[in-house]
Write a structure and sequence with these properties.
By secondary structure, the protein is mostly helical. Helices cover 62% and strands 2% of the residues.
């Protein structure tokens, strides 16, 4: 959003051209998401405590987990807000990859929010059924896969490139949709299963997001992709802004989620991340 504003004034004030650099915007997205998390975090926690949105803990499990009952949950709302606002501020709003990533993340977060709400209202750790989760996740994942497939403009966009073997690449065709589906579903549920201890899921997500940010930046840069002899995919570098916002929001959330946790992300956060 801010790129258009800075580009408008860059002709009059040259230094504003620095905002054209993807790496600079990715850093700003990270810092912005971090600040949003840190500023809104205490207010969000107080509000959750005020309306008594507390964590429901399974009766079966370590006794140390029972003391976590009543700790505010649905902290993923804070994470999602930080990611969304930061990406909108520093991302290119005409980029299809950015909107796809934001759309999937937000919709998975909404699904997790409904699951958390069910747990709180029913005072049970069960929430939505496993079938309901997988069904709606599948709808969202397939929609994203089909959208990316039908909007692709080159074979590299729907190909499987084998890491470390620069000349091995498989054009998947419609198989890309199936692969995208598996990756999205598996990733979402992997984080959901990992989330269980204070700060446990947040740190791996930050490391993975940072890695993807670097990969997307390199693949979306003609100089680096040519040097490394990997396919160049136009506009995919914008995802580094999105990944940077994930790193910043998770880092800010970790400040409140580190042991002893003051808030949990709930399925709102774990499913979306």
């Amino acid at each position: 959003m801010l790129i258009e504003l800075f580009n408008f004034f860059s002709d009059s004030f040259g230094p504003l051209r620095v905002f054209d650099y993807l790496s600079f915007r990715a850093i700003l997205a990270t810092l912005t998401a971090l600040l949003i998390s840190l500023i809104l975090g205490p207010r969000f926690i107080d509000k959750m405590q005020e309306i008594q949105v507390g964590q429901v803990v399974r009766d079966k499990g370590p006794s140390s987990h029972f003391m976590k009952r009543g700790t505010p949950t649905m902290g993923g709302t804070l994470i999602l807000a930080s990611i969304f606002l930061s990406s909108l501020l520093w991302g290119d709003l005409e980029n299809k990859y950015l909107w796809t990533a934001l759309g999937v993340t937000t919709l998975f977060g909404l699904l997790g929010w409904i699951d958390d709400l069910f747990k709180i209202k029913l005072k049970s750790s069960d929430g939505l059924s496993g079938f309901s989760k997988i069904f709606w996740q599948s709808i969202i994942a397939l929609a994203a896969g089909f959208y990316l497939y039908y909007t692709s403009v080159g074979s590299d966009e729907v190909s499987l490139i084998v890491p470390f073997f620069k000349e091995i690449s498989f054009h998947l065709g419609l198989g890309f949709v199936f692969l995208a589906y598996l990756v999205i579903i598996a990733s979402s549920n992997a984080v959901n299963l990992t989330d269980g201890l204070d700060g446990l899921a947040t740190v791996p997500v930050m490391l993975v997001a940072l890695t993807f940010s670097i990969i997307c930046y390199v693949v979306g840069n003609t100089v680096f992709s040519n040097y490394l002899q990997i396919p160049f995919i136009s506009n995919v570098g914008e995802i580094s802004v999105f990944c940077g916002s994930i790193v910043g929001s998770c880092l800010g959330f970790l400040w409140f989620n580190a042991p002893p946790a003051k808030i949990f992300m709930g399925d709102t956060g774990s499913l979306s991340l």
